[in-house]
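Minutes, project check-in
Item: structure for the 200-residue chain
Input as provided by the requester:
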Amino acid sequence: MSSKTQDVKQVADEAAADPKNLEALVKALSGGSRRERQQAASAIALVARANPKAVAPFIGELVDALNRPEAQTRWEALEALAILVHQDARACEKAIEGAETALFDEDSGPVRLAAMRFLCSFGATTENRSEKVWPLIDEGIQCYHGDLEFQDMLVAVTDFSSSKLSPEVKKKLAERMRFDAQNGKGALKKRASQIVENLK
C-alpha cells in the first residue's frame, strides 16, 4: 500500500471515528486547495463504503463537489453518491445533472465510469427512476463501447438489469445488449448475455 493510500485510509478512519473530523473533510471539499479537495473526497468515499449512514447528511456537499475542476474529486464524490443512493435516493437525485456532465467528460475514464455507476445505482431504486436515467445509461453504453472502462461499466449495468426497472427500460436495455450477447466475444459476450438473461 502506498504512503498516499495509507494517509487517505488513516484520514478516513479518523473521520469514521469522530463526526468532527468527518465535518472537516466535508468542508475541505469546497476549499481552495486542489490536493486537499482530492484527499477529502477520497477519504469520504472510503467512509461511505464503511458507514454510509454517517455520510448521508452530507449528500448536498457531495453533489456540489461534482462542480470541482479536478477529476479525482468528482469521481470520488460520484462513487460515494452511488453508495448513498440507498440511504436517500431523493437527495441524490440532485446529482443527476453533475453525473451527466461527468459521463461525457472527454478527459477522464474514471470520471465516466463513476458517473455510470451512480446512474445505474440511482436508476435501480424504482421504475420511475430507471426511466429518468435510462437515456443517459443508453448513451453511455453506445459511446464507450470498446473503451478501457467499458467492461467495468457493464458490471454496473448488470446490477441495474437485475433491479426494479420499468417494462419499457427492460425492453430497451435487452434490445441494446442483444447484439453483443449474440456476436460479442469473451467477457463482453458473457456480460451482455447475463444482462439479457436478467431481463427475461
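Outcome recorded: Residues 131 and 169 are 6 Å apart (CA to CA).
No further action items on this chain.
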